């Protein structure tokens, strides 16, 4: 089974991609000006992640939700 799991809090977010039995992850933490990847894989360098999936994963969805949650906490 292929799937993508996203977990988002006001402090950051993580993305886990499972493709053909392999798992790739990225973890981002909130910064003063947005977010920064602090651990995990470089999805752009992984051959199994095609351009369409990479573009979808590289959207601002996680970032936008993280900031919306942070604004609720303020």
How do the helices and strands line up, and which of them pair or pack?
Layout: E1 3-9, E2 12-19, E3 22-31, E4 34-40, H1 51-57, H2 61-73
Antiparallel strand pairs: 1-2, 2-3, 3-4
Q: What share of the residues lie within helices?
A: 25-40%
Structurally, how many domains make up the residues?
Answer: 1
Radius of gyration: 13 Å
| Measured distance between first and last alpha carbons | 39 Å
Beta-strand proportion: 35-45%
Give the rounded overall mean pLDDT.
92
Overall SS class = alpha+beta
Query: Oligomerization state of this entry?
Result: single chain
Largest sheet descriptor? 4 strands, antiparallel
Put simply, the count of helices is 2
Low-confidence stretches: none
Outline of the structure:
The protein has helices spanning 51-57, 61-73, and strands spanning 3-9, 12-19, 22-31, 34-40. The chain is an alpha+beta fold and 74 residues long.
Describe this structure in words.
With 74 residues, the chain is of the alpha+beta class. It has one domain (3-73). The protein has helices at residues 51-57, 61-73, and strands at 3-9, 12-19, 22-31, 34-40. The protein has a four-stranded antiparallel β-sheet, with helices on one face. Strand 2 and strand 3 (22-31) form a beta hairpin. The longest helix has 13 residues, at 61-73. The protein is elongated. The model has no long low-confidence stretch (mean pLDDT 92).
């Amino acid at each position: 089974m292929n799937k993508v799991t996203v977990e988002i809090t006001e402090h950051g977010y993580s993305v886990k991609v499972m493709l053909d039995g392999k798992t790739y992850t990225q973890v981002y933490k909130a910064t003063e000006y947005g977010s920064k990847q602090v651990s995990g894989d470089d999805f752009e360098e992984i051959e199994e992640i095609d351009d369409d999936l990479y573009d979808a994963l590289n959207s601002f969805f996680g970032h936008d939700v993280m900031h919306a949650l942070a604004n609720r906490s303020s």
